[in-house]
C-alpha cells in the first residue's frame, strides 16, 4: 500500500514538473459586455510568465500568439523571474507590441524569486511581506513596454481607442504587496467600455472597480491554484478571492446582479523557478471575445 502511494506521488510529481508545466494552452471565452449592436473586440490576456532567459519554448509560444491578431493586449504582471530576463520578455512580446496594449506589474516584476516549498502554495496567503528594495530591473521592463506604446496603468486611469472604440481603464499596482493606491472616481460614461486591471484579484480592488462602473476586470496572480485536485479544483487562490473564481470568467460580486462586473482571472503561463510544477492546472493565455450584451 505504502509503496503504491509512493509510486503514485512520484508519478504525479514527474507529470507536474516534466510535462504539464510546459503544456501551454490558449483558452477562449465570449464575454457579453459591450453596448447592444456593437461588433466584437478581441482581448489577449497574458499573465504570470515568470520568465527566465533560457525558456525558449515559452518565448516562442508567446510570440506565436500574434497570429491571433487581437485588438488589445492586457498584461497583468509577474513577467520576470531573473535579473537578466527583461530582454527575453521583450523578445517574447515583440510581435505583440505593435498592437494596442495595457499593463500593470506584480510582485515578481519587482522582487526576485526565493526558494520555496511547493506545498507552501497550499498555506494561507501572507500578502505584503517584502519590505526591502526591489531587486529586479522593473524600470527597464516598464520602459520597454511603454516605449513600444503599451499603456502603464500603475495606480492610474487611462484611455485608448481600440478598433475605433473608446476604452477607459483603471489600474493598480500589486495588491498582494499592498502597493495598490486605487485612483477612485467613476468610469468615463462616454467610453464604449470601462476596464479595470490588477495583478492580484483582492476583493477590495474588485469592489472598488465595480462600484466605479468598470464592467470588465482582468487579473492574474492565482496561477489557477497551481496544484489542483482533478474533479475538485483549486485548494487556494493566494489572495482573498474564493476558489470558485480562481481562474476563468465569472461575475463580481459573485452573486451577480444588474451592476455586477465581468471578471476574468488568468491562470498564467509560468511558475516560480523554485516551484516549477503544475498539476491539473496547465499554463495558459486567454483570448476574450467581447460581444454585445
Structural commentary:
The protein has 293 residues and is of the alpha/beta class. The chain has one domain: Purple Acid Phosphatase, chain A, domain 2. Helix content is 19%, strand content 24%. The protein has 6 helices and 14 strands. The radius of gyration is 18 Å and the shape is globular.
SSE diagram, text form:
Elements: H1 2-18, E1 25-34, E2 41-46, H2 56-64, E3 72-75, H3 86-93, E4 101-103, H4 107-110, H5 138-147, E5 151-152, E6 156-162, E7 165-171, E8 193-197, H6 203-211, E9 216-219, E10 228-229, E11 233-234, E12 248-252, E13 261-265, E14 284-292
Parallel strand pairs: 1-14, 2-3, 3-4, 4-5, 7-8, 8-9, 9-13
Antiparallel strand pairs: 2-14, 6-7, 10-11, 12-13
Helix pairs in contact: 2-3, 3-5
Q: Report, as a whole number of angstroms, the end-to-end distance.
A: 55 Å
Which CATH class is shown? Alpha Beta
Structural class: alpha/beta
Number of structural domains: 1
**Are there runs of 5+ residues with pLDDT below 50, and where?**
1-10
Q: Could you give the count of β-strands?
A: 14
Biggest sheet strand line-up: 1-14-2-3-4-5
The rounded Rg comes to 18 Å
Individual helix count = 6
What do the pLDDT scores average to? 92
Helix content: 10-25%
Order of helices and strands: HEEHEHEHHEEEEHEEEEEE
Proportion in β-strands: 15-25%
Amino acid at each position: 500500500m505504502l509503496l503504491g502511494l509512493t509510486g503514485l506521488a512520484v508519478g504525479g510529481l514527474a507529470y507536474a514538473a516534466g510535462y504539464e508545466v510546459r503544456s501551454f494552452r490558449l483558452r477562449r471565452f465570449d464575454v457579453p459586455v459591450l453596448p447592444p449592436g456593437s461588433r466584437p473586440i478581441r482581448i489577449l490576456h497574458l499573465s504570470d510568465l515568470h520568465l527566465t532567459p533560457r525558456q525558449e519554448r515559452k518565448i516562442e509560444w508567446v510570440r506565436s500568439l500574434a497570429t491571433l491578431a487581437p485588438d488589445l493586449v492586457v498584461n497583468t504582471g509577474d513577467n520576470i523571474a531573473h535579473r537578466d530576463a527583461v530582454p527575453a520578455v521583450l523578445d517574447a512580446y515583440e510581435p505583440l507590441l505593435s498592437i494596442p496594449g495595457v499593463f500593470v506589474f506584480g510582485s515578481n516584476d519587482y522582487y526576485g524569486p526565493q526558494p520555496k516549498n511547493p506545498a507552501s502554495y497550499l498555506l494561507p496567503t501572507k500578502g505584503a511581506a517584502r519590505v526591502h528594495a526591489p531587486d529586479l530591473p522593473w524600470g527597464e521592463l516598464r520602459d520597454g513596454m511603454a516605449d513600444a506604446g503599451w499603456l502603464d496603468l500603475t495606480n492610474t486611469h487611462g484611455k485608448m481607442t481600440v478598433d475605433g472604440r473608446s476604452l477607459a481603464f483603471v489600474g493598480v499596482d500589486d495588491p498582494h504587496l499592498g502597493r495598490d493606491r486605487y485612483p477612485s472616481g467613476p468610469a468615463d460614461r462616454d467610453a464604449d467600455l470601462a476596464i479595470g486591471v490588477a495583478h492580484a484579484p483582492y476583493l477590495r480592488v474588485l469592489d472598488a472597480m465595480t462600484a466605479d462602473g468598470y464592467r470588465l476586470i482582468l487579473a492574474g496572480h492565482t496561477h489557477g491554484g497551481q496544484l489542483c485536485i482533478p474533479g475538485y479544483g483549486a485548494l487556494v487562490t493566494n489572495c482573498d478571492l474564493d476558489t470558485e473564481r480562481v481562474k476563468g470568467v465569472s461575475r463580481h460580486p459573485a452573486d451577480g446582479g444588474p451592476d455586477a462586473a465581468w471578471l476574468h482571472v488568468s491562470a498564467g503561463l509560468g511558475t516560480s523557478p523554485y516551484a516549477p510544477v503544475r498539476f491539473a492546472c496547465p499554463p495558459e493565455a486567454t483570448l476574450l471575445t467581447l460581444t454585445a450584451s
